[in-house]
Amino acid sequence: MTKATASLLYSEDHEWVLQLGGNRVRIGISDYAQDQLGDIVFVENAEMDDKVTANETMGTIESVKTASELYSPVSGTVVGVNDSLGDAPETINEQPYEAGWLIEVEMSNPEELEALLSEDEYKEFVSEGDV
Amino acid sequence: MVEYNELIFEISRPGRIGSSLPESDVDKIDLYDKLPKHLIRDVQAELPEVSELQLVRHYTALSNKNHGIDNGFYPLGSCTMKYNPKINEDVARFEGFSRIHPYQPEETVQGALQLLHELQEELAEITGMDAVTLQPSAGAQGEWTGLMMVKAYLEQKGETRTKVLVPDSAHGTNPASATVAGFKTVTIPSNENGLVDLEELKKHVDHDTAALMLTNPNTLGLFEKDIVEIAKVVHEAGGLLYYDGANANAILGKTTPGKMGFDIVHLNLHKTFTTPHGGGGPGAGPVGVKKKLIPYLPVPRVEKDGEKYVLNSDHPRSIGRVKGYYGNFGILVRAYTYIRTMGPEGLRQVSESAVLHANYLRKKLEPYFEAPYSQVCKHEFVLSGSKQKKLGVRTLDMAKRLLDFGYHPPTIYFPLNVEECLMIEPTETESKETLDAFAEVMIQIAKEVENNPGVVLEAPHTTVIGRLDEVQAARQPILRYTKEKAAEREVVKS
Amino acid sequence: MTATYRYLPDTKQDQEEMLSFLGISSTDELFEDIPPEIRLKGELNIPAAIPEPQLLKKMHELASQNKNANQYPTFLGAGTYDHYIPSVVNHMISRSEFYTAYTPYQPEISQGELQAIFEFQTMVCELTGMDVANSSMYDGFTSLAEAASLAVASTKRSKVLISKAVHPESRAIINPVSAGQGYTVEEVDLAADVTDLVKLQEQIDQDTAAVIVQYPNFFGSIEDLAEMKKTTEANGALFIVSANPLALALLQAPGKLGADIVIGDMQPLGIPMSFGGPHCGYFAVHKKFMRKIPGRIVGQTKDEQGKRGFVLTLQAREQHIRRDKATSNICSNQALNALASSVCMTALGKQGVRHMAQLNIEKADYMAKRLQEKGFMIMNQSPFFNEFVVELPRPVKEVNAKLLEAGMIGGFDLGSDYGFDNQMLIAVTEQRTKEEIDQFVEVLEASVNG
Questions:
Q1: Where does the record place the modification N6-lipoyllysine (chain A) (predicted)?
Q2: Which of B183, B257, B280, B365 makes the best surface tag, with the fewest CB within 10 Å?
Q3: Which one of C8, C169, C343 has the shortest CB-CB distance to B350?
Q4: How far apart are CA C234 and CA B168, in angstroms?
Q5: Is the pLDDT assigned to residue B106 strictly greater than 60?
Q6: pTM to 2 decimals?
Q7: How many Cα atoms occupy the beta-carbon half-sphere of C108 within 13 Å?
């Protein structure tokens, strides 16, 4: 288990967003999400320069048990991709908030961040169960 | 005994052969005279080179690492692993059935067409439908075929409906088939008795509902008692009712989907009608329909014209072809032979015995496992491993422990709405002694979970191989033999 | 109920013991949850049970009403062929450990089936020249439709081009599939006996997900895949090749000619014709589509002791897990027929498969030459494998009737599917002897005059 950093924002689809300065953000999945998925075996990540839209599919993630859609928490252009996940998808299980990040996006509509959950709100959302 | 772990490629030696073909009795051809060079194979396909006896030993060794119904009890819920009669195998191999070509003139295949026609009629009678197509190769293809007919039927009426309702306990194929047929799936939750929640259903049924897909008895092995009311609700809204025949082994000669109010049915001949599962196929998934859907059945249809049997493609409203030729004929021959063996009283007794066996086993096991739906079941029932989970042993572990006793485990973790689910279907072809012996082993395992959980957690102990690393298999897939990967294995060996 | 049916073991005493354990007096009580108004009152109206000896006799009689290829040498092909099947094939697939097993979901007691499939996947990869093959599909026709669906899903384009020289049933089956999934299918016309490359150029565009061709095509002609690949690649579409696996023993592997997906039917290698089924579709892809391949696939892994073993893998996208998000609803394969095909390929072996293919090409070539000598027109302008088209002076149906009188099954009538009246598609496999071929030619010759 790794600890989340306090400055992260979360979506109800279990993605976290880290603001890197300017309109640039880094996106990954939460510790809760990786735990629910179990051993992750493959990530079909977005590619450089792809356009992503808030709440729409930006890729898929597969564990032995299941394949899930990844939903982008924000809209914008992909400016960074974590290529190391290709050979080592287990990094997401091991370090979901650090080395297991997915993509970096240059946001086209930073106001979308306001719709996301804070750390405490997300904790509460997860503990309500049935998510 | 020395364990045999070779791949066929690893025992291959250049120059060996396991068959004999004649030399050519016509003029030889040099491919380079006939074909442009770039279309001639440059690197030969590396197929095995072994003698006939080596081949036989290899596949015999492989078969010895496999468990089938003939090896032992196989209570795999929802799969109806009943005995696969030997006469069926012999008959399907008669040259008059196995060595006929699908495009032979109709007058040269009257026996085959007669068989298909009679089977259509008998399956229609068994399901209470008005007509049957034998084309679909499997249940999933049958579902899809049925839904495409729903679509065509609605289109003909000038309606476009987009929703297919599926209970949460349904087989995964139901929503998948609906999606592939271009519908949107809406999941209907079950009530606390494990049945379709009528009030929930009413909330979702509307003018956009194309069909409700239902298995009855459902995947919990429970009969949907409100079926007549359910059918009424769906029909009044202009929707159709689709019967998933996976569990038809419970109702033969007792009731029919037709009587229940269904409009479309598929059967799995590899479940109810004893055709072998073959390690994953081939099966067959015939589809029956009520009169109003007959025009949409796939073509060609096998029909009788006077004394002659014919293939007729002249049905303009048909959804077209869903499968090459006329379906999995060899499988249909087996099912026909089985129905002839049993007759009407026999088929009724099949369901009576199947249901008796399931209830007997259920009552024997209920004191030891959580029974989420403790009521009369049909041909199968579910238990929950939730009690054992609290002691640190999962259903998967108990399933693996069963392997040590020579049993194939029940279906596990399905249906999804039961925690740590075990789904047990004993079938009618097992003797009471087998049921008693299995119950004793299950009870022993339940006791082991309490007293000696390690033996369950580390199971299986007696199989040729232990639990396999499925994560590694999916992360770095090795999906074919190569010499390089074989070299890796040598390292492991030493 | 007493044990009067050999598949039902319950004696009266067994039944009474079980009923009394349940505290009931009759099995009827177990069916009381079925509302009375929908219960069947009498027995099903189907024929009565028949004891085994009489049933065997009856089934023999029914079978004997069909003219089989053993009695009537057949010159029909068109997707299903009469080939030599080594005796050993039937013996191996009759091992009931294989045929009475379910899908290998419990790998510890299914290593035999899993390894056999892994070997099958390898053989398919070898023949097609592709990186990855699945454990098999229903048949070649449905494999083709699944390949089109994969192409549409992965390119996110909505048009599929299919050559008219692809089997008519493949082109028929893709229609309801495309209707369900919302993509369009356009046929590419013929230039004589092969796909018209000029038309292909005209029809292909940036919305084309895939180009589908057959190799050898429906008329037996060997399409130039290299040329088609250029056009396909230039437009970013996937190249799907439906191939006869026996022909691939001699023809360049589609994988080497740029195919993205190769599909087809293993029937020519070890599977009886059986009036059209069950056969065995195969499905092979370039490695970039490895995780998009439909159906079941077996992978190699290790157990806790490091011992090699096999499991079903890449299952996360299968219908039982993805449910309504699945891109295919297939949940079975043709495992037993894939096994038959593996055993057949093993028995024939690396040399035997080539020898068999060579016999086919030589015999077809011999027959075509004989017909030409007699003045018949062979319609194929491209080289062909074991099938070719001959033009007759009268309807195919009439000629086939003459052939039947002479004890042979004639070829496929191209009239109804293509409008090629009086043109017969003839298949000549290694099963046909020179004498049979000569006799066939004689009947055709006589039919011109008679």
A1: 65
A2: B365
A3: C8
A4: 46
A5: yes
A6: 0.94
A7: 25
